[in-house]
Structures
1.
Amino acid sequence: LLHDCVKLDVRLTEMLQGLAAAPGVGAAARLLGVHERSLERWVGRGTGRPPGFWQALARSRRCARALPTGVPLVELALAQGYADQAHMSCEFRRWFGLTPAALRRSPALQQLVQQAGFN
């Protein structure tokens, strides 16, 4: 329903996708061919949130989507760019309100994470 009611600027959509794909804001800016400060301004004006917010959300969603694979949490954390498993757990609590292990144990929550959204 939200998708039908919200229309993002094409350039802003491209910037959010670049942020989701890149390992850092600077890398996203290079990927998109813009200055980092321009990316910060554009995304900030368009969403009310800084680029780092969107990158952290995308990384957490990618990681949550990988939970059903059964990969050990420490390996999953490192593969997604977290410093360690504790860092990943802290971010999961921030975004999802529970730990990766708790999310992994809940099929209903896993279905929600698998749904389309910003990634």
2.
Amino acid sequence: MRRCLTGLAAACLPQLAMAHSPMRGIGEFYAGMLHPVLVPPHALALFLFALLVGQGGVRAMRFAYPPFLMALAVGLVLAGLDISLGLPIEPVLMVAAFICGLLVALQASLAMWLYAVLAAAMGLIIGSDSGVTDYTRQETFAALLGTWLGATISLVLVAGVVELLARPWLRVAVRVLGSWGTASAVLVLAMALR
């Protein structure tokens, strides 16, 4: 009985909960670096986009990286200034993830300008949804800089590994990952629209 009462009393004393809250003990910069891979919609969309860019090869990387990095920086500045794009971010990210995953699964060959457009859209959306709360200006800058670096490293690392996979069975494995990502995006969209 004492345990039940203690548990009930503890449940009645909630702690502060924030969206995109800081992770205790690692600092703002490192929390920002982990942010793109710990927020599921960001991680799924970024992962599937990286698979798509990696499938496109080095030429696709040259067209995708610069717009992504610039648009991500713009989105992070907007987030830091508390300016919203006015879009429902999670459904938009899931639609983008669905498109990227479907293109990966189909191993579609895209025009190079499409990589640039997708990269700019992905960077802007992920960046603008990466705002932090209850930080000083210096802490906000550190967190957003960490987010920019974390998203950049994630994109370059995954796309680079996919580009290096030359064996046919490894290419099939990438397509399977794309189809799983597409299914995951559809499930999240269905739950959101329900």
